[in-house]
Design brief:
This protein folds into two domains: 110 residues, no CATH class; 126 residues, Serine Threonine Protein Phosphatase 5, Tetratricopeptide repeat (Alpha Horseshoe). It contains 13 helices and no strands.
Length: 244
């Protein structure tokens, strides 16, 4: 099982092959039992290990393709005759290749900072404190369903009557980062992090993530380094600093 075959299988499963290449592989799978066995194992393991990868996955595939090209250029060197114990290594070889493929991708991801690794994950439960109660319910529902544009509209409706609602401001900041309204998010997090609300340190953390998502790593580091030990996200901040 060489690198190009692994790439061929992977491209097929990702729907990245041309119609001609796809038809050719499907034809081979019908007539080449060993290739079919290898593909079946790869597909099954791929189903267990594969996730939605970012640019690290593409970078690794490029590396694998380079290795494949180099492999093809290696001259044939006469080998000494050795006694080979007959067995079927295909299953283990394919499994090892798949583990290598995805294991390396995971390693790349662990070594590189990504906004999605630290982004807000969960549902919000707004504390109604005056204003239009229906706006709270609508904002909460929209945010929890990932409809951040809608959520911001409802957050603003609340803030008209309750401009000092730090909880609503904080979640509006997160929603703004999600829809890439970075300037609005920065203004909100700056205001909260310089205040004395319970969201002071959380706002610092999400300000750092706001910069991270924009690729502003130096500004992100400055915020992370200023986060005090008592902050809820201090450990995450230290982890992110190591990756940066």
């Amino acid at each position: 099982m060489d690198e190009k075959t692994i790439l061929l299988f992977d491209d097929y499963l990702q729907g990245a092959l041309s119609p001609e290449a796809r038809d050719s592989l499907e034809s081979r799978l019908k007539t080449e039992p060993e290739l079919k066995d290898a593909f079946t194992i790869f597909r099954d393991l791929n189903g267990h290990l594969s996730h939605h990868f970012s640019e690290e996955r593409i970078a690794f595939k490029d590396t694998l393709e380079t290795l494949a090209d180099q492999h093809l250029k290696v001259p044939n060197i006469p080998k000494k005759e050795v006694k080979v114990i007959p067995f079927k290594p295909l299953r283990y070889l394919v499994a090892a290749c798949v583990v290598m493929l995805f294991g390396t991708i995971f390693w790349f991801q662990m070594q590189h900072a990504s906004y999605s690794d630290y982004a807000f994950d969960g549902n919000i439960d707004l504390v109604e404190r005056g204003g239009d109660e229906s706006a709270f319910a609508k904002a909460e529902k929209s945010f929890n369903n990932g409809l951040y544009d809608e959520a911001i509209v409802h957050f603003d409706a609340i803030l008209i009557n309750d401009p000092d609602n730090t909880q609503v401001l904080f979640y509006k900041g997160i929603a703004s980062v999600e829809i890439e309204e970075y300037t609005n998010a920065e203004q909100i997090f700056t205001s909260l992090s310089t205040g004395n609300s319970v969201f002071k340190h959380k706002a610092q953390w999400y300000q750092a993530l706001n910069f991270l998502k924009q690729g502003k790593k130096d500004q992100c580091k400055v915020i992370l380094e200023s986060l005090p030990r008592e902050a809820e996200n201090y450990k995450n901040a230290q982890d992110l600093l190591k990756k940066l």
